[in-house]
Amino acid sequence: MRDIFSDLYDKVLSFFNAQTQDETKVVAKNRLKTVLMQDRVGFSERAMQMLKDDMLESISRYLEINVDSFDLSIDAADNATVLHLSIPVLRTRTDEEIDEALSIAEKVKIEKTEEIVGEIKELVKEKAQALADQITEQKEETEDTETAEKEEPKEKENKEKSKKQIKETK
Questions:
Q1: What is the number of alpha carbons within 13 Å of residue 162 lying toward its C-beta?
Q2: What pTM was computed for the model?
Q3: Where along the chain do its domains lie?
Q4: Angle between helices 2-41 and 45-62 (to 10 degrees)
Q5: 30-56, pLDDT tens digit by residue?
Q6: Helices and strands of the chain, counted as H and E runs
Q7: Distance CA 31, CA 36 (A)
């Protein structure tokens, strides 16, 4: 009886392990394809992801698509680069939905622009303050130098007067 449960347990476990190995194999195979494609075409993984994100964003404004099944690949074939797209479309968007999506995209652009402008203003303030501090330091150094230069002739005069007085007393 114990052997039956042990065999059943092993079979069930092997079923799950086989699936995991198959999934791992598929993932590894896809990664290898991506690496080979990038090597042949000269397109980095980062650039590929950015292209995919941009396409998803643009297409999603006009069509409702299954993002999980979206597939984008680039291949080199016969001295040409070929872009392959598989875009499962669920439905087209209405004109109102398109207008709303475009409006939202415009608002996002405006918000990003305002954020960038705010950051630039902050940087300009910091640089202006640093420059003002530097100018203040230079003024102080100049004033110190001028003061020292003014005191030098007075000291020379005092020394000369002292020498004259010493000579006169002799």
A1: 6
A2: 0.46
A3: 1-93, 95-170
A4: 90
A5: 777 666 666 666 677 788 888 889 999
A6: 3, 4
A7: 9
